[in-house]
Amino acid sequence: MFPTQDELKQALSRREPAANFTERLMEQVRAEPRVKRFPLRRWTIVGAIAASLTAGVYIRQQRRAEPPAAPSVEAALAGEQLFETLQVAGWQIHKAREAVFEPQAEESQ
Amino acid sequence: MQEAMETAPRLLVDAALRDTEAFAAIIDRHKSMVFSLAFHFFHDRSVAEDIAQEVYLELYRNLERIESDLHLVYWLRQAVTRKCIDQTRRLKHRRYQPLDEITEPGFEPPQGDPMLAELLQKKIATLPEKMRLVIVLRFQEDMRLSEIAELLEMPLNTVKTTLRRALARLKRKVADLDLEVAYVSNAR
Q1: Residue of B120, B123, B134, B164 best to disrupt the A interface, most CBs of A under 10 A
Q2: pLDDT (tens digit, 9 = 90+) per residue, A68-105?
Q3: Is the pLDDT of residue A16 over 80?
Q4: What is the rounded CA–CA span in Å between residue B169 and residue B40?
Q5: Average pLDDT value for residue range B77-89
Q6: Which of B4, B6, B93, B188 is deepest in the core (most CB within 10 A)?
Q7: Which of B5, B28, B31, B46 to mutate to probe the A interface, most A CBs <10 Å?
Q8: Average pLDDT, stretch A28-48?
Q9: Selection from B130, B150, B152, B133 nearest residue B141 by Cα
Q10: Residue A9 is nearest to which of B139, B170, B171, comparing CB atoms?
């Protein structure tokens, strides 16, 4: 005798658990501690802060260790322009001072 | 039957929001599948109910991960098969002796020849665990071999071989029993 597919299907047909299965299970479900929806949120924040601090310290150390960088071309040009502007401004002040004080000197003589 | 098994997406959403009534409705829709998989694996109602409860509690903790009805059925089947394998290992460790089948309220004997069905269930429960799983998923859940392969994370050819060997073993076990029965009747 060999069981046919139908006999196997009948033997393995679905059964129902005990009548109060759902009730008993729901009691356990209600007793379950409330699941935290985002349990990783706190650790994510802590991780992000730690990573920022580490990165900050690392960048600061790197800057201290590096020699001061040579000024860029733009910075050099800006410096020159500033110097020329100051020279022109100084010359103009000098001329204005002469215009104010020299006539007074001539009058006193 | 497949249609009746399907869970309304609304139920899943409500259950994920910790609506206990919605979760109870999900349990009711799938409890016979979950319980029967474990029952046919162990041929023990008490162990099967414990496993079904564990599976549902695990589901309750992971409801947010369930994407659809089909995903729910797949998840439940996979969870039961894993729990069955884990339980087998635990029971082996404890030198487990299965209890006799006790008829309880809610127990529905299979249609057809109940003696043959009972005999087959007992013989199936003595097969090695992978063979048992393949046979139960194939004949209880009517799953295709490719679906079983995916669920059990086994190559398709391995599933085919396992099913063939399981059926051959079952045939030998039933034939041995026939011989025993014939011997006893002749002796009388």
Answers
A1: B120
A2: 667 788 888 999 999 999 999 999 898 888 888 776 66
A3: yes
A4: 17
A5: 93
A6: B6
A7: B31
A8: 73
A9: B133
A10: B139
Do B120 and A22 make contact, defined as CB atoms within 8 angstroms? Answer: no
Q: CA B145, CA B130: separation in Å to the nearest integer?
A: 13
Separation CA A90–CA B94 (nearest Å)? 100
d(CA A69, CA A62): 13
B96: pLDDT strictly greater than 70 = no
B140 contacts chain A (CB < 8 A): yes
Write the residue in B23, B33, B178 that is nearest to A14 by C-beta: B33
Probe site for chain A from B17, B27, B111 (most A CB atoms < 10 A): B27
More confident residue, B39 or B98: B39
Average pLDDT score over chain B: 83
Which A residues, 28 through 87, put their C-beta within 8 Å of a C-beta on chain B? 28-30, 32, 34-35, 37
CA distances from B31 to A48, B40, B87, B135, B161 (A): 43, 14, 19, 20, 30
Of all residues in chain B, the one with the smallest CA distance to A29 is: B57
What share of chain A in percent tops pLDDT 70?
Answer: 81
- Residue partners of A7: CB distance under 8 A and separation at least 6: B112, B113, B116, B117, B120
